[in-house]
Amino acid sequence: MRNAARCLHAFGAASRYPDIRVYPGAAKPLLRPAKHDPEIHGVDGLGGVDGLPDPDSPEVARWFAKDPDGVHVRALDGLSRAVRQTWNNGSGRKVSIISSGPMTNIALFVVVYPELLEAVEEFVSHAAQIVLDTPVKKTMIPLNVTHTAIVTRAIHARLRSPSSPPQDPNAPLPNAATKLRHTLSTLISFFADTYKDTFGFNDGPPLHDALTVAYVSQPELFRATRFRVDVELTGTHSSGETVVDVWNYLACDENVWGAGGKNCIVTQSVDVERFFDFFHECVLSCDSVSPLNIVQTI
Q: Residue 124: is it exposed, middle or buried by C-beta count within 10 angstroms (0-12/13-18/19+)?
């Protein structure tokens, strides 16, 4: 919750989307114990990042949704309210819901508010069985796709200084052109080191979560196929793994998005070059409004 608010501040969201708010989600998974990966993401989830405001600062606290008594509004309430208001009993628009992490809050939403499922255009995510069985269109961005979106040294250099000419791969990275670019670079550098040490990624770290947003914004960047997808819930050594019926062994209804049907679109590749062009365009857009780039004088 705090990291989401810190990023909204850094990206200058207040100048364009002042009504955005951040809601705390579920405290733990529905079935399994909570698990964190500090060796990958750092103790605070944004390991190694430099330049973001302190998690307890007023710049962060202003983004939290609170009720009239000053109590945080939970994600389940915020999500249902946003869907209901946007849909407006059918006279408004349907929504696409992106989950870039655990899907506990989405699972709670589909169980508690089944009447709002008609207002959902699509879930874009990784996978959870409760959501996969929901009769709503779903798209999954699996790791074999996200692991192709590698922040190579050339891409990292362009992030730090878009006006610098291409460099020798062994040359030092250019100086960051702005404070926002410095902040993003420190995060990527930390992630690059942990991914190299843990998974052996020598060319750079992958950008997982950004691909879910890119899919909703520009689905034409992806090649995808509809399959039956389930999550292994009982296996001793494979519990939680996603199983995709790539050979169509199961007799599934092509027209059903929930239980018993081909329930999920699975992306199989992404146009990496165009994706990173889109990524750089987003950073450039944020660069022009980010409070991190404002030079304060005394």
A: buried
Tell me, what's the pLDDT at 59?
A: 93
Flag whether pLDDT at 297 surpasses 60: no
Q: How many helices (H) and strands (E) does the chain have?
A: 11, 7
**Which tokens belong to 258?**
């929930």
Is 83:120 a contact under the CB 8 Å cutoff? yes
Contact 233, 239 (CB under 8 A): yes
Beta bridge partners of 65: none
The string of pLDDT tens digits covering residues 30-54 is 877 888 888 888 888 888 899 999 9
Residue 47: how many CB atoms within 10 A of its CB? 17
17, pLDDT greater than 80 = yes
Q: What is the DSSP letter of 172?
A: P
Helix (H, G, I), strand (E, B) or coil at 287: helix
* Residue 283 to residue 185: CA distance in whole angstroms: 12
Scan for tokens 């209804």, then name that residue: 253
Q: Which residue has the higher pLDDT, 234 or 183?
A: 183
Whether pTM > 0.85 for this model: the answer is: yes
4 backbone dihedrals φ, ψ, rounded to 5°: -60, -45
Q: How far apart are CA 296 and CA 217, in angstroms?
A: 35
- Point out which residues pair with 138 in neighbouring strands: 123
